[in-house]
Design a protein that fits this description.
- This protein is α+β, with helices and mostly antiparallel strands.
- Helices cover about 15% and strands about 60% of the residues.
- It has an eleven-stranded antiparallel β-sheet with strand order 6-5-4-3-2-13-12-11-10-9-8. The protein has a two-stranded antiparallel ribbon with strand order 1-7.
- Strand 12 and strand 13 form a beta hairpin.
- The longest helix has 20 residues.
- The radius of gyration is 23 Å and the shape is globular.
- The chain starts with a helix and ends with a strand.
Length: about 280
C-alpha cells in the first residue's frame, strides 16, 4: 500500500514539474533595488527613389547623388537603469543614463548622452517625467520623452500564463508627432513560446506594421507604409524581463503630393540586437 502511494506521489510530483517546465507567466516589469545594464545595437539601410519631378532629379545629378539614394546607419545605445526603494504607495524611482553613438554613411560618429527620470511599480513599467540630454533642445527632449513612454506602453504584457506552443498577440497603436507631419503606426506582434527551462523562456516574435504620415503643411506629402519583422526573445523567468532580443524588419513606404508630380518610394531594412544584464543592489 505505502509503496503504491509513494509511486503515485512520485508520478504526481514529476507531472507537476513537467507542467511547470512547459509553461511560463508572461509579464514584464522592473523590480525595486536592481540594476539593468543594456546594450542595443541597430543597423539600418534606407533606399529612397523618386519619380515625376525633374527639378529634384536635376538637383540630385548636380550634387553627384546616385539614384536611388542609399543611406546606411549604425547605432549603439549603451544604457544603465537603476531602480530605487519601494515606497508605501508601491512606487519606486527609476533612473536611466545612456550613451548613444550613431554613424550615418561615412560621416563621423555622433555621440549623445542623456539621462531620464521617472517611477515604476511592481506591476507596471516606468512612466518617465523628465529628461536631460546634452545635445537636445527643449522640443527634442519633449518628443524623446514621449517616444520612450510610448515604448514602455508597448512593452506592457498581460501577466498571461502561457504553455509551450501558445501565442500571445498584442496590437500597439503609436502616434508620433514630427516637424510638419504626424506619423501614425500600428504594430501587431505575436509572441510564440517555443521552449521553457528553470530560468528562461524562449519566444519567437513576429510583427506586422502599417503606418501613415499625414502632412500638416504644403511642403511635405502624405506617406503610407507596410512591413513585417521577425526575431527571437530570451526571457528571464526570475526577473520577468528579456535578457536578449534579436530582430530584423523590412518596410516599404510610398508617398506623393497632391499638388505635385513627385512620388517617393522608400525601402527600410533594420537589424537589431539587445542584450541585458540584471543584478540586485
Amino acid at each position: 500500500m505505502y509503496k503504491k502511494i509513494a509511486i503515485l506521489f512520485f508520478l504526481a510530483l514529476t507531472t507537476l514539474v513537467a507542467i511547470s517546465q512547459d509553461s511560463v507567466l508572461f509579464k514584464m516589469n522592473y523590480k525595486p533595488m536592481f540594476e539593468y545594464g543594456q546594450v542595443l545595437s541597430m543597423k539600418m539601410r534606407m533606399e529612397m527613389s523618386s519619380s515625376g519631378d525633374s527639378t529634384l532629379s536635376n538637383a540630385q545629378s548636380t550634387a553627384g547623388l546616385n539614384k536611388p539614394f542609399i543611406m546606411n546607419l549604425d547605432q549603439i545605445i549603451d544604457s544603465k537603469t537603476v531602480t530605487g526603494k519601494l515606497a508605501a504607495d508601491k512606487k519606486f524611482p527609476v533612473y536611466t543614463s545612456a550613451i548613444s553613438t550613431t554613424t550615418a554613411m561615412k560621416d563621423t560618429a555622433r555621440t549623445n548622452r542623456f539621462e531620464m527620470y521617472g517611477y515604476a511599480t511592481t506591476e507596471s513599467l516606468p512612466v518617465l517625467d523628465s529628461i536631460d540630454a546634452n545635445t537636445f533642445n527643449a522640443e527634442a527632449k519633449k518628443e524623446l520623452l514621449k517616444t520612450m513612454n510610448n515604448m514602455f506602453t508597448q512593452m506592457e504584457m498581460p501577466d498571461k500564463k502561457m504553455a509551450v506552443g501558445e501565442d500571445y498577440i498584442k496590437t500597439s497603436p503609436m502616434n508620433i508627432p514630427a516637424t510638419g507631419m504626424e506619423m501614425n503606426m500600428i504594430a501587431t506582434t505575436k509572441y510564440s513560446l517555443i521552449s521553457v527551462t528553470d530560468s528562461t523562456a524562449v519566444f519567437t516574435v513576429t510583427t506586422n506594421y502599417s503606418m501613415n504620415m499625414d502632412s500638416k503643411n504644403s511642403s511635405i506629402g502624405d506617406f503610407n507604409g507596410f512591413g513585417e519583422g521577425k526575431g527571437e526573445m530570451i526571457y528571464s523567468r526570475k526577473y520577468n524581463y528579456p535578457t536578449k532580443y534579436t530582430s530584423s524588419m523590412k518596410m516599404e513606404i510610398t508617398g506623393a503630393k497632391e499638388d505635385s508630380s513627385l512620388k517617393m518610394h522608400i525601402i527600410l531594412e533594420t537589424g537589431l540586437e539587445s542584450v541585458c544584464s540584471i543584478k540586485s543592489l
